[in-house]
Amino acid sequence: xxxxxPPSLDExxxxxxxxxxxxGRMSFTVIAKKLKVSIGxxxxxxxxxxxxxxxxxxGRVNPDKVGFRCYAHIAVYVRPATFKEKVAQKISxxxxxxxxxxxxxxxxxxxxxxxxxxxxLVDFVDEISKIEGVNQTKTTIYFKVYKYAQPDLKLLK
Length: 157
Hints:
Layout: H1 11-22, H2 28-35, H3 39-51, H4 63-66, E1 70-78, H5 84-92, E2 97-102, E3 109-115, H6 118-129, E4 134-142
Helix pairs in contact: 2-3
């Protein structure tokens, strides 16, 4: 299967994924009962979803509760444009990065970061500014995060 081709998911797969998004520790027994299928069916489907990379199991922490007090969005301008991929690869290795994407429009890369405090953010911006190809950055600090969530799978229906 090509890495660009998404795996084929059916209603049962989406059902399992939806329950796991609500509670990643929900037992196969509970999921099977709610979906009216056998535990073995849920286990088999779950293992397939893990193997094909549709899901991975993580413990998602609340950043504020563990000491991240500074969230920011950084617009990165890359020159020459041929350095975009190289710059993105370097930025993607940095631990503070929670989201990284190539964009259209005024800037080339969009980076969301979580830092301990403003001083940590200043050091981080200084670090990425030194990457070869980074021409300019513009930082926007998020004062308050109102929602931090996974996408709602019902939007795909």
